[in-house]
From TrEMBL:
Coiled coil: none
Superkingdom of origin organism: Bacteria
GO MF annotation list: heme oxygenase (decyclizing) activity
GO terms for biological process, alphabetical: heme oxidation
Name this polypeptide is given: Heme oxygenase
Lineage of source species: Bacteria, Pseudomonadati, Pseudomonadota, Gammaproteobacteria, Lysobacterales
């Protein structure tokens, strides 16, 4: 059994940010390269990607072991909003897929997946603003990008404080990073499928 990670607890989120910077940048560029703000049909492709990812992770938001660390977790799920956005743009909801066993992912990996999902709220403001050129907004077609009522920064800080506070050993710490990387890889797959 390894002792506590040499990483200070407060640096977990910073560590995740550094170690996923490249894959995030590639994703950002790949999403923009699809011309998602060209018309609503292209934006619907972005929504299909989002729907795939949020459907994967929806079970995480109901897990008791995660709720113990993030008391507001259940209210953070955005799957229903993404689904409503997709329907608003006339898109069909893809059939549910059960490839990712989000309900049985070990806790450290689940933390990595959650980091990616919750972190994506930070970029949402940028996307929401650009989507307004298509007549989309928080009331139509882009509701899942709406800032949290408490403000994006507060919402993120509350999540990251709780994430940093989870006690993990060094093996588990590495599993969090692996989980975050796997989540980004998964979003890349959804992007390719959404625009195939
Ligand atoms: C065109 C697409 C995207 C753009 C323009 C974008 C942009 C941004 C921006 C501006 C930030 C805030 C950086 C900061 O304040 O330091 C951010 C953070 C983040 N985004 Fe994205 N993003 C995009 C897509 C995504 C997607 C699809 C995901 C995952 C599903 C994602 C995951 C994250 C994460 C995890 C962070 C938090 C990084 C951290 O501060 O720890 N992003 N993004």
């Amino acid at each position: 059994m390894l002792g506590p990670s040499p990483l200070a607890a407060a640096s977990r989120v910073e560590n995740l940010r550094q170690l996923t910077r490249d894959t995030h940048a590639r994703l950002d560029h790949a999403v923009m390269a699809q011309g998602i703000f060209r018309d609503r049909a292209r934006f619907a492709g972005f929504l299909r990607m989002q729907h795939g990812f949020h459907a994967d992770i929806a079970p995480l938001y109901a897990r008791a072991d995660l709720l113990a660390h993030f008391p507001d977790l259940a209210a953070r799920t955005r799957l229903d909003l993404v689904a409503a956005d997709l329907c608003a743009l006339g898109g069909d909801l893809p059939p549910p897929r059960r490839e990712l066993p989000a309900s049985s992912l070990p806790l450290p990996a689940a933390l990595g997946w959650l980091y990616v999902a919750e972190g994506s709220n930070l970029g949402a403001a940028v996307i929401l603003k650009l989507a307004s050129s298509l007549g989309l907004g928080v009331h139509f077609g882009a509701s899942h990008l709406a800032p949290a009522a408490e403000g994006v920064a507060n919402h993120w800080r509350r999540f990251t404080s709780a994430l940093d506070a989870v006690a993990l050993d060094a093996h588990e710490e590495a599993d969090v990073v692996a989980g975050a990387r796997a989540a980004f890889t998964r979003v890349h797959v959804h992007l390719r499928e959404a625009f195939a």
